[in-house]
Design brief:
The protein is of the alpha/beta class. Helices cover about 30% and strands about 30% of the residues. The strands form two sheets. It has a four-stranded mixed β-sheet with strand order 1-2-3-4. The chain has a four-stranded mixed β-sheet with strand order 5-6-7-8, covered by helices on one side. The chain is globular. About 20% of the residues are buried.
Length: about 180
């Protein structure tokens, strides 16, 4: 497994780097398809923040933690990542056993007669680019949960269109499909 280290305002000593590489290499015993990983370390407000990202055959998983000690922050972030890897592995195992990929998302109809206030224009402060991989809506919700995001953009494997899944405030998920 290829591991990249990114530091922001933190000096990474060789012994700590070796410790992190050793711990990250043990992730492969949980899931053998991990291609690479990235460890981002930063320091702010008296806490070290460690964000660990791994690419498991196209599925991006992330664990993050903050602590006054860099080693403790890394260990907790790695524990969060391990939990996600185990959950993803059990999901793949269940999916293989059930052989069902059917997901239905129902969006409630909304009235368009109400005038919504127009918010003031805000400046775009970050642009993020990523590849769109074909997947089912169920796989997209799983990827969204693994990343800890509120929404996820993906290419629908069934019809080839770009869709968005999102977490609803009342629980469950929603699916946005473009219409012409």
């Amino acid at each position: 497994m290829d591991i990249r280290f990114v530091t922001r305002g933190v000096e990474l000593k060789d012994d700590l780097k070796g410790y992190m590489e050793n711990k990250m290499s043990k992730l492969e015993r949980f899931f053998s398809r991990i291609i690479d990983g990235q460890v981002v370390m930063s320091f702010g407000r008296g806490l070290y923040t460690v964000e660990i990202t791994s690419n498991a055959n196209g599925v991006i998983m992330r664990g993050q933690s903050s602590a006054p000690d860099m080693r403790k922050a890394f260990d907790q972030g790695l524990k969060n990542l391990e939990r996600q890897i185990k959950r993803h592995k059990s999901y793949l195992k269940d999916r293989a056993q059930l052989k069902t990929h059917d997901v239905s998302f129902e969006l409630p109809s909304t009235e368009t007669d109400t005038d919504l206030p127009i918010p003031p224009e805000e400046e775009i402060v970050k642009v993020k680019r990523f590849p769109l991989r074909p997947m089912s809506a169920k796989e997209a919700t799983m990827q969204m949960d693994l990343l800890g995001h509120e929404f996820f953009l993906f290419k629908n494997a069934e019809n080839g269109s770009v869709n968005v899944v999102y977490k609803r405030k009342d629980g469950g998920y929603g699916l946005l499909e473009p219409s012409e």
